[in-house]
Amino acid sequence: MPELVFTVARFGVLILLWVFVFAVARAIRRDVFAGASGTRAAAPAMAAGRGGGGRSSAPKAARTLFVTEGDRRGTTLPLQTAPIRIGRASDSTLVINDDFASSRHAQLVPRGGQWILEDLGSTNGTYLGRARVTGPTPVPLGVPIRIGRTSIELRP
């Protein structure tokens, strides 16, 4: 009888191990292939913007990029017509020393009078508000863009 219990326990542990392996593989696959559906983050990102409370005034244009958290906290960059590349690489427009940032992590591109956020295939992802950016996403004023421990905002 004890030999039967030992055999059943061995198979039970083996099954639990395989369940764990498949769960890890599924999580990795979900993270790696999250960029395949580029429209998922656009709607939540727009909903993340701070509403005007019914005001009919024209939206203000973004003029500066302001770092609110991270090693470059307090840094401001004037927004012009050139794209802003963000990452650890020394040739980035905004170089951030963040262990969770990729060398070429994300970029902000001016398009049609607004700024569009694009993740450049980073390992840990780029977030606009609470939504992960999976495709080109418009950035409203004051909504935090999070890259690792660094947080930045567009301001008027």
Describe the structure.
The chain is of the alpha+beta class and 156 residues long. The protein has 2 helices and 11 strands. The chain has a 6-stranded antiparallel sheet, with no helix packed on it. A hairpin with a 2-residue loop joins strand 10 and strand 11.
Summarize the structure.
The chain has 156 residues and is an alpha+beta fold.
Shape: elongated
Q: What fraction of residues sit in β-strands?
A: 25-35%
Termini separation comes to 76 Å
Radius of gyration: 21 Å
Largest pleated sheet: 6 strands, antiparallel
**Which structural class do the helices and strands define?**
alpha+beta
**Residue share in helix:** 10-25%
Q: How many β-strands, per DSSP? A: 11
As laid out across the biggest beta sheet, the strand order is: 2-1-11-10-7-8
Mean pLDDT: 83
Number of H/I helices: 2
Return the string of H and E elements.
HHEEEEEEEEEEE
Low-confidence stretches: 35-54
SSE arrangement:
Blueprint: H1 2-32, H2 42-47, E1 64-69, E2 76-78, E3 84-87, E4 94-95, E5 106-111, E6 114-119, E7 127-128, E8 131-132, E9 137-138, E10 145-147, E11 150-155
Parallel strand pairs: 3-4
Antiparallel strand pairs: 1-2, 1-11, 3-5, 5-6, 6-9, 7-8, 7-10, 10-11
Looking at this protein, list some descriptive labels.
single chain; 156 residues; alpha+beta; 6-stranded antiparallel sheet; 5-stranded mixed sheet; 24% helix; 27% strand
